[in-house]
């Protein structure tokens, strides 16, 4: 939510937010402190909505995936009736994990340790000889699989919350909901996760990846080699176009710590912007995609969906970059200087094999552990983390760029300030 | 028409295990020495190089699944060009690497070429951290002894995830 009352200058333990002077600083201890890491667990990851998975990962009743969300092993599954659940992946008996594969289909989960078993709606389902346990054993639900307190979805994006009293997901999403809509509307058939999760780690604080994921400022410098490749492959692109008004990217504060940059980049978009290297065949295929979009959502919205690139961050740790392909990533700290990243490719269901190939090629050229760009981001984040060891003598990060502008651009740092204001509010509130 | 047994016999004739081993050891040495142009020259025009996700099946397709790397010949050429630049930050200053190749087997021959499998361990050190990549490689080799070229190289990672390695910024 937009802050109704914003002090002109706020100097807290972690940030200096000088709106009048146009200066915003973040204390580097926020990236290195063990105390911050522990406080974040209780104040942020146990209170905020966390992405657990996409509905397309569970296409049929009884499907399940297992993953770690917010430091806890969970099962994201559908029961026999098709209902979605998220259970803590730990046996109520003595704690072993009841599902140990990454994904599968299961009518029941059986703990391998002592054999306790559970219906896939979480109900305890083991029969014991009479007299072993009291007759009413488990009737109160105490030996059912423990359920994550809250599970809600928006446009097939499933989020959990460890706080029973959290506001509803849609309220929490604020202005970010509309951006999820833009991506969910790419296809009349819905969207799907394509072929697996990229699971990797980075030796840096998790908040560095939040900042990096919608940092328009670093792109030209850090990713010079990617753009060099892009310019070669897209053919006769006129580099001066990048300065054109239509391509300028802007920064948006979406409320509740969520933020986005949106603009237009020179790469091709399988949803609506062809590039010369895709040839006549690609041009025609993209024109078909755009025609369907226009028909379904109207020309104005179709143009925004097809021809604008956007990097969205949902507080605290969900990123959706709808750029040369769509990547969804979420990440959790395992230590102040270490995070685990889960990264997905999202694509329209029913997309043609050729469109799908262009999309996956586009994805791999930039994104992921073997792309021409993401590894250089990882290097930058890890390099910054090592630099923070000097925080006693070099204590502040500066993210003031564009702070005095009426309308901040994508290569300004307003989106990061939106994140840090919310982070500070949650870390400092009584 | 060639039968399975005559194909196997042909493979034996075409390339011996020792000839394949010589090529793979040579390739590993070029990569460890960062002689990337020489390495790229081992690949036949039109060759591919790919790295599916950790734990994937050997026959997975990059048209349907999300890989880490799925290079055609042109993208591979650019990968090499990029890695030679100090602007490839992830590999500048360059990593130190050491590759160990073993368990080399000539599996047979098909219309694409001679199929070879090996196991590898690759140590990569950068910024005083050493990561280990472990897995097996599947090669399609073509050409005569002494002038063998790689028509495809698929690097399988026999680990659960890229934790803690984080990235595949070297060529495996």
UniProtKB/TrEMBL annotation, chain A:
Residues 49-160 form the Rieske domain. InterPro entries: Rieske_2Fe-2S, Rieske_2Fe-2S_sf, Ring_hydroxy_dOase_asu_C_dom, Rng_hydr_dOase-A. Keywords: 2Fe-2S, Dioxygenase, Iron, Iron-sulfur, Metal-binding, Oxidoreductase. GO terms for molecular function: dioxygenase activity. PROSITE patterns: RIESKE. The keyword Iron applies. Belongs to the bacterial ring-hydroxylating dioxygenase alpha subunit family. This is Aromatic ring-hydroxylating dioxygenase subunit alpha. The lineage of its organism: Bacteria, Pseudomonadati, Pseudomonadota, Alphaproteobacteria, Sphingomonadales.
């Amino acid at each position: 939510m937009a802050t109704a009352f914003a002090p002109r200058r706020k100097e807290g333990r972690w940030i200096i937010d000088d709106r009048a002077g146009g200066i915003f600083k973040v204390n580097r201890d926020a990236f290195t402190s063990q105390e911050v890491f522990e406080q974040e667990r209780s104040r942020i990851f146990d209170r905020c909505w966390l992405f657990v998975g996409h509905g397309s990962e569970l296409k049929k009743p009884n499907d399940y995936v297992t993953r770690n969300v917010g430091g806890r092993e969970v099962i994201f599954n559908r029961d026999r009736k098709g209902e979605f659940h998220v259970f803590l992946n730990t046996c109520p008996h003595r704690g072993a994990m009841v599902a140990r594969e990454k994904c599968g289909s299961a009518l029941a989960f059986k703990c391998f340790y002592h054999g306790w078993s559970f219906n896939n709606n979480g109900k305890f389902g083991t029969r014991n000889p009479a007299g072993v346990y009291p007759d009413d054993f488990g009737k109160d639900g105490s030996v059912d699989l423990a359920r994550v307190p809250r599970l809600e979805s928006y446009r097939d994006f499933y989020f959990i919350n460890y706080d029973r009293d959290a506001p509803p997901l849609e309220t929490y999403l604020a202005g970010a909901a509309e951006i999820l809509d833009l991506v969910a509307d790419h296809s009349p058939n819905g969207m799907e996760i394509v072929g697996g999760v990229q699971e990797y780690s980075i030796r840096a604080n998790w908040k560095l990846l939040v900042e990096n994921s919608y940092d328009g400022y670093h792109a030209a410098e850090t990713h010079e080699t990617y753009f060099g490749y892009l310019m070669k492959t897209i053919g006769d692109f006129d580099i001066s176009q990048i300065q054109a008004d239509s391509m300028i990217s802007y920064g948006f504060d979406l409320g509740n710590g969520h933020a986005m940059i949106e603009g237009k980049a020179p790469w091709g978009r399988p949803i609506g912007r062809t590039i010369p290297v895709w040839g006549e065949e690609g041009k025609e295929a993209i024109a078909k995609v755009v025609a369907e979009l226009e028909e379904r959502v109207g020309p104005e919205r179709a143009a925004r969906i097809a021809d604008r690139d956007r990097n969205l961050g949902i507080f605290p740790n969900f990123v959706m970059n709808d750029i040369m392909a769509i990547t969804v990533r979420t990440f959790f700290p395992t230590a102040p200087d270490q995070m685990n990243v889960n990264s997905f490719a999202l694509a329209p269901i029913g997309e043609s094999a050729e469109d799908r190939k262009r999309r996956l090629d586009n994805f791999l050229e930039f994104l992921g552990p073997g792309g021409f760009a993401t590894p250089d981001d990882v290097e930058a984040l890890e390099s910054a983390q090592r630099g923070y060891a000097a925080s006693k003598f070099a204590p502040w990060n500066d993210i003031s760029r564009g702070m005095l502008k009426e309308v901040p651009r994508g290569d300004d740092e307003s989106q990061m300030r939106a994140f840090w204001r919310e982070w500070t509010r949650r870390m400092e509130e009584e | 028409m060639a039968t399975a047994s005559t194909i196997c016999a042909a493979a034996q004739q075409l390339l011996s295990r020792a000839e394949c081993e010589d090529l793979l050891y040579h390739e590993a040495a070029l990569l460890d020495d960062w002689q990337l142009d020489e390495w790229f020259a081992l690949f036949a025009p039109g060759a591919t190089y790919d790295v599916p996700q950790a734990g994937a099946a050997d026959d997975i397709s990059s048209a349907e699944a999300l890989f880490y790397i799925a290079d055609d010949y042109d993208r591979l050429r650019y990968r090499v060009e990029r890695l030679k630049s100090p602007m490839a930050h992830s590999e500048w200053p360059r990593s130190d690497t050491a590759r160990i190749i073993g368990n080399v087997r000539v599996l047979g021959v098909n219309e694409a070429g001679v199929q070879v499998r090996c196991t590898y361990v690759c140590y990569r050190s950068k910024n005083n951290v050493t990561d280990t990549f472990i897995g097996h490689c599947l090669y399609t080799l073509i050409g005569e002894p002494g002038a063998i070229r790689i028509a495809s190289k698929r690097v399988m990672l026999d680990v659960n995830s890229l934790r803690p390695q984080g990235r595949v910024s070297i060529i495996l």
